[in-house]
Write a sequence for this structure.
C-alpha cells in the first residue's frame, strides 16, 4: 500500500473546493469562453452553455468525484479496482496520458502569459493592429525564450506538488483562488466603465433566440462547458480520491461548477466591454489573436493601461497555473499509486518527461519550420497536440466515464457511495437518468460533430 503521507488528503472541504475549482478555471475560461461566445453569436451561446453545464457537466463531475472517492486511487487504479479483470483500466490510462499531453502545450501558452505581464507593464507592446500582431509573432518565434518560459511554468508547478496535497496544492490554491476572483472583479468593474462598454454588454447579454437551436452553437457550447470543467482527463477523479468519506460529493461538485462558471462569465464582462471600446473589434477573434494581439492594443490606449494590462496577464497566469497543478497531479498520482514511487521522485520524473514532450510545441510558432507546418496536416505541432487531447481524448474519456458509471458500475452503487454517512443526494433519480442517457448521447454527438467538421 502507498502511505497516506505520499498520497495525501485534503485538509478541509474548502481546500478541496478551491483546488478543484482551480483545476477547472484556466485559460479556457479567460480566453476560450469569450472566444466561443463571440463565434457563437453572443448571449445565446451563454444561455446554451449554462444549460449544458447543468444537464451534462455537473452529472459527470459527480460521477468522476464518486469513482475517485470510492476507490481512493489514481484513475488507472480506480477503474481497475471497481471492475477488476476487465479492460476498463484503459480509461484511466487515457486520463493519465491526457494530463501529461495537455500540460506539454498548455505550459507553453502559460509561459506567453508570464512574458506579457512584463511586456504590458513596460509598454513594450504598442502601435496599431499590425505592429502588435508582428510583436507577438516575433516573440513566439524566439525558441530559447519560449522553452525557458515553459520551464518556469513547469518548475513552479512541480514546486507546488513537491509539498503534497495539503501543504502544496491546497495551501497554494487557497491563496491563489481568492486573489484570482478579486482580480476578475476589479478588471470587470474597470472594463464596464470604458467608452463603448455598453455596446459590448448588449452583445454579451441580449440573446438572439433565432440561434437557440443552431447545431453549431449547441455543439460549441457543450464542448466549451465540458473542457472548461476539466472533465474526462482524470483530474476530478484524482482530486476526488483525496476527498474524505465524510464530505458531501454533490455539494462539493455544485460549488466547483458554480465557481468555474462564474469566473467564465466574469471573463466575458472583461473581454467584451474592453474589446468594443476598440474601433474595429472583431468579437469572433480566436484565442491567441484575442488575448495577445487585440487586448494589448486596448491596454496601451487606456489611462493607466499598463497597470490594467499587467493585472490582466497576472490573472491569466494565475488561472493557467491553477490548472497546470491538476494536470501534473494526474500522472504523478498514478506513479505514486501504481508504481509505489515517492511523491518527490514522481513529480521530478514526470515534470522532466512533460518538458521534453513540450519542446516541439514551444518551437512550433516560427522557431523551427518543421514543427510550424507539419506535412500533410496544415497545422503546427502545438495545434496538433491541442486537437488530439482537447478535441478527442477528453470527450472520449468523458463518454466512457458516463457509460462506466451508468451501465457497468451502475448508478445504484454510485449513489450508495455518494450518500455514505448520510450525505444528501437531492435529484438522484434525475442524475441517474442524465448520466445513463443524456450525457453519453450528448458527448457522442460532440465527437461525431468534431470528426465531421475536420
Amino acid at each position: 500500500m502507498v502511505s497516506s503521507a505520499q498520497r495525501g488528503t485534503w485538509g478541509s472541504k474548502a481546500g478541496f473546493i478551491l483546488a478543484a475549482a482551480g483545476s477547472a478555471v484556466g485559460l479556457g475560461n479567460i480566453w476560450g469562453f469569450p472566444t466561443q461566445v463571440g463565434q457563437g453569436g453572443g448571449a445565446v451561446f451563454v444561455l446554451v452553455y449554462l444549460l449544458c453545464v447543468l444537464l451534462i457537466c455537473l452529472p459527470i463531475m459527480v460521477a468522476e468525484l464518486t469513482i475517485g472517492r470510492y476507490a481512493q486511487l489514481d484513475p488507472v487504479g480506480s477503474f481497475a479496482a471497481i471492475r477488476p479483470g476487465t479492460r476498463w483500466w484503459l480509461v484511466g490510462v487515457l486520463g493519465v496520458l491526457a494530463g501529461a499531453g495537455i500540460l506539454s502545450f498548455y505550459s507553453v501558452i502559460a509561459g506567453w502569459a508570464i512574458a506579457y505581464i512584463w511586456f504590458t507593464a513596460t509598454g513594450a507592446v504598442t502601435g496599431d493592429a499590425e505592429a502588435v500582431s508582428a510583436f507577438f509573432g516575433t516573440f513566439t518565434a524566439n525558441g530559447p525564450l519560449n522553452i525557458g518560459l515553459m520551464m518556469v511554468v513547469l518548475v513552479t508547478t512541480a514546486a507546488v506538488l513537491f509539498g503534497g496535497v495539503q501543504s502544496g496544492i491546497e495551501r497554494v490554491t487557497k491563496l491563489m483562488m481568492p486573489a484570482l476572483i478579486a482580480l476578475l472583479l476589479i478588471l470587470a468593474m474597470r472594463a464596464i466603465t470604458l467608452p463603448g462598454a455598453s455596446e459590448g454588454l448588449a452583445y454579451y447579454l441580449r440573446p438572439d433566440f433565432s440561434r437557440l437551436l443552431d447545431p453549431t452553437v449547441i455543439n460549441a457550447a457543450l464542448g466549451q462547458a465540458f473542457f472548461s470543467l476539466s472533465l474526462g482527463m482524470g483530474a476530478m477523479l484524482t482530486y476526488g480520491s483525496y476527498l474524505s468519506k465524510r464530505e458531501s460529493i454533490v455539494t462539493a461538485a455544485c460549488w466547483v461548477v458554480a465557481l468555474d462558471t462564474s469566473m467564465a462569465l466574469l471573463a466575458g464582462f472583461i473581454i467584451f466591454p474592453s474589446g468594443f471600446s476598440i474601433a474595429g473589434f472583431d468579437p469572433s477573434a480566436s484565442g491567441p489573436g484575442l488575448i495577445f494581439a487585440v487586448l494589448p492594443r486596448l491596454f496601451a490606449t487606456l489611462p493607466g493601461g499598463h497597470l490594467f494590462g499587467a493585472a490582466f496577464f497576472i490573472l491569466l497566469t494565475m488561472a493557467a497555473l491553477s490548472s497546470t497543478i491538476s494536470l501534473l497531479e494526474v500522472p504523478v498520482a498514478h506513479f505514486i499509486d501504481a508504481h509505489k514511487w515517492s511523491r518527490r521522485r514522481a513529480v521530478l520524473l514526470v515534470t522532466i518527461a512533460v518538458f521534453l514532450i513540450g519542446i516541439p510545441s514551444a518551437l512550433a510558432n516560427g522557431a523551427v519550420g518543421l514543427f510550424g507546418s507539419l506535412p500533410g496536416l496544415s497545422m503546427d505541432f502545438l495545434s496538433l497536440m491541442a486537437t488530439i487531447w482537447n478535441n478527442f481524448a477528453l470527450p472520449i474519456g468523458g463518454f466512457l466515464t458516463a457509460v462506466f458509471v451508468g451501465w457497468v458500475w451502475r448508478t445504484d452503487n454510485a449513489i450508495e457511495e455518494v450518500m455514505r454517512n448520510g450525505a444528501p443526494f437531492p435529484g438522484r433519480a434525475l442524475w441517474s437518468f442524465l448520466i445513463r442517457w443524456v450525457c453519453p448521447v450528448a458527448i457522442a454527438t460532440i465527437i461525431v460533430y468534431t470528426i465531421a467538421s475536420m
In short: The chain has one domain: 4-105+143-292+316-453. The chain has a mean pLDDT of 90. The two ends are 46 Å apart (CA to CA). Residues 89-122 form the longest helix (34 residues).
